[in-house]
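name: query_chain
kind: protein
chains: 1
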Amino acid sequence: MFKRLYHCYVAGLYDLSFDDGKNLIPLEEFRSEMKEILHPDDYQLASLLFMPYDNKNLIRFFSGKGEQHDIHGNYSQEEFEEQVKLLDSIIKVDDILPSYMVEIIGDWLAGEKSIDLIDAEKRLTEGYFNMVDNSGSMFLKKWSEFELDLNNILVLKNSMELDLDASDQIVGRNQLTEELKIISRRKSDFRIPPEPEYASVIFNIAGETEFLERELKIDQIKWRYINDLIFFEYFTIDFILGYLVKLSIALRWKELIPEKGEEMLRKLVTELKETEDKDKAEAEAK
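structure:
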């Protein structure tokens, strides 16, 4: 598949080493840059990484509690409201939102603006992953599969601690998904699936009881996985997509808990640098 090259843009990106004193570019500013520089087709791929914000915003919209709309989404509160009007309209016009969102909004209207929010959240998640799977981007496909597996394992582990069956909340239809559903029903005496390779690592991380330590380790494995995906990508949209995800991780730690976040972020950087140096040494040795 042909990939456009963005030599000057990538060369000018900040080095995401999170050195002390370095200011990270805000997500919205980075997004504006991408919109100006990337080919529209490539920018559309980048926009897919913001869709989870839209899913959460739609859940807020359904709840009717007036919770603040996250500006990182692709669609505004007004566009949600306009889509509702379009579905109520007799005249057929093009939808504003993706089809999976339109379908769920239709069900919400059919239920007289009432819907099971947990079920809606699951359906939105499934719709998003299906959309990414059909995007034609191998990076997004592999990254979304990883995210899906990670989230499913965390859902399973959290439910097991509460002695609940999570099989209805596990999303997707791959082999790991089916194995996790079986584990959830058994609740004990199970074997951690050998595939994919990162499954056992995530299971161990999910057992971490200290919140920030667990979040740190989750972001570490995300970071390493992205580095693996873009290892041979130079100046392509895949590199930029990986950079976007890593920037989101870095910004989250900056905002999570200012003082503790800074401390954990420095720890993240140190450990990631050590891992990256080891990976480079092993690659050069080959």
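note: DSSP finds 13 helices and no strands in the chain.
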